UniProtKB/TrEMBL annotation, chains A, B:
Domain Enoyl reductase (ER): 10-322
Gene3D superfamilies (alphabetical): Medium-chain alcohol dehydrogenases, catalytic domain, NAD(P)-binding Rossmann-like Domain
Protein name: NADPH:quinone oxidoreductase
Entry-linked PANTHER family: QUINONE OXIDOREDUCTASE PIG3, QUINONE OXIDOREDUCTASE PIG3-RELATED
A GO MF term: NADPH binding
Keywords from the UniProt entry: NADP, Oxidoreductase
Sequence intervals crossing the membrane: none
SMART domains linked: PKS_ER
Entry superkingdom: Bacteria
Length: 326, 326
């Protein structure tokens, strides 16, 4: 089968196709004939050789497709349309996945739509609810509102809570889209100081939950814009890694909770538990078209390099997909 | 009545006695004839004019004594021996307290012992369990093991969990005492690199929960010594406020949770809930002498300045008490 590996750490030009034999199915696993996969930031970090936690030489952490083989104890029918997280190996014609985290694809969704769900919706669910503890009375600040996780988080916050949703993005087009998904207050970070806007919108209290993909460059403004007892979930560092001069007194006085998280390196047990809760809490909303996967663009598998370039240009609204085994 | 206020922000010499009329009891409150109070770090911060959250001009945040008046709805008998947190006003001959957070003093404890309980044991309970989520399988690193909160946390971790307890302190005398309270591994931070000792004791994994009173000067070592998914509860900044460089990638990869907290400025509702859980989970252990308040020294009320100096010299093991209304 064809699959994508990294020649040597570097840019999109380092991505190349290589022939592999089909992965072997172990107990409790299924083999999926992959129909679609998606590009994630973590794939770029892996491509650059910086993640340090990817054991699989094949990139890609989520797929949709059809079950074509199953190991002992895998409780699922052959031929079932499924989607879910893989431990690497997603940019490939076939991929294995523990059966207990495969999600059945609702009939109203295509394979390309389905593969746009697992990583960003599970991440958004985990950060908003498991780590952020978002409640109806809260205000949530979702940075990078146009991103995959951003568009997922806005919808989840809107449909599962009565929280006030504030989002930031860098263009009117992205902000308009965020508003259409349910964001209450939309801030163009290039034109407005988001901390001031957040304070204005919250009677000077600040946001109770922050989803922060940005890191260092937003540190001061996040700290100013967070409420007492706020939960600040750090899930990316697009804006730099190192913060100069962190004042711990401010964390103490505001009783801020900063929670670093990544989904990909977590254990199989964690992913199973998260997937199960997500299936029962959220999947019905996809069937009812209350929540939808946001697909920015679908690339043919052969265009993997262009797909990576597209993400790094930061122009996407929602997910960048790969069509495989057409 | 006599009570202690701050002349102007500064050292212990700024503490002075002033005459006040007895506080008035509102609905749901009790008036306590104070028998003992205790010195806390937060009193020093308030004395220096740095806390910014003390509305009461009289210092002191915990007392023990007898109920001498009660407001409507206060469900407690006059004459009851009680202890608990006050919203300032603890360094005084009389103090008011919401009745719903007054704890009855076990018969086996004196007033001086009782007033050594509320602040440090409630703080230790809150940080270990509510914020730290300490479980039997965890390793907890308790800094400043000889301090009031440190001695309380070691005992609580020992009696309520099977967690491995590591503690740091600056003298053999303090470390021996920590060991007698239940600490499994005792590190002299003046002679040993505590991060290396923690890694050695945990098979290179690190501590799952850290109680950090120190802040900036311990930042790097705490980060090195914390386990993946570790909870790092920041409850003091004795070692400085500003961390020069914080690497967010390390927080992300280890999925560290940093939780700043203070007990004193929290709401009455929070203090009530915490007190109630503490009374049901921990108070029986005091009656059975399984856990005990650690009193370093009792000062006469008139010696308030010396009592503050004693805390600032960092020589105490356990709590520094004030005897009032002898």
């Amino acid at each position: 089968m064809k699959a994508v590996v990294v020649k040597k750490p570097g840019g999109p030009e380092q991505l190349q196709f290589q022939d592999f034999s089909k992965p072997k199915v172990e107990n409790g696993e299924i083999l999926i004939k992959v129909k679609a996969s998606a590009i994630n930031r973590t794939d770029i970090v892996s491509r650059e050789g910086k993640s340090g936690y990817m054991a699989n030489p094949i990139l890609g952490i989520e797929v949709s497709g059809e079950v074509v083989e199953k190991g002992a104890g895998a409780n699922i029918e052959l031929g079932t349309r499924v989607m879910g997280l893989v431990n690497g190996g997603g940019y490939a014609e076939y991929a294995v996945m523990p059966a207990d985290r495969a999600m059945k694809i609702p009939d109203n969704l295509s394979f390309e739509e389905a593969a746009a769900i697992p990583e960003v919706f599970l991440t958004a669910y985990q950060t908003l609810f498991w780590l952020g503890g978002l409640t109806d009375a809260d205000t949530v600040l979702i940075h990078a509102g146009g991103s995959g996780v951003g568009t997922a988080a806005i919808q989840l916050a809107k449909k599962l809570t009565k929280a006030t949703i504030i989002t930031t993005a860098g263009s009117k087009e992205k902000l308009d889209f965020c508003r259409s998904l349910g964001a209450d207050i939309c801030i163009n970070y290039k034109e407005q100081a988001f901390d001031e806007e957040v304070l204005r919108a919250t009677n000077n209290l600040g946001a109770d939950v922050i989803l922060d993909f940005i890191g260092a460059s937003y540190w001061e403004k996040n700290l100013k814009g967070i409420n007492t007892d706020g939960r600040w979930v750090l899930i990316g560092i697009l804006g730099g890694t190192v913060v100069e001069k962190v004042n711990l007194m401010e964390l103490l006085l505001k009783r801020v909770q900063i929670k670093g998280t990544l989904l990909t390196p977590r254990s199989d047990a964690y992913k199973k538990e998260l997937t199960e809760e997500f299936v029962s809490s959220v999947m019905p909303l996809f069937l009812e078209n209350e929540i939808r996967p946001i697909v920015d663009r679908v690339f043919p598998f052969a265009d993997i390099q262009r797909a990576h370039e597209h993400m790094e240009a930061n122009k996407n609204v929602g997910k960048i997909m790969l069509k495989i085994n057409e």
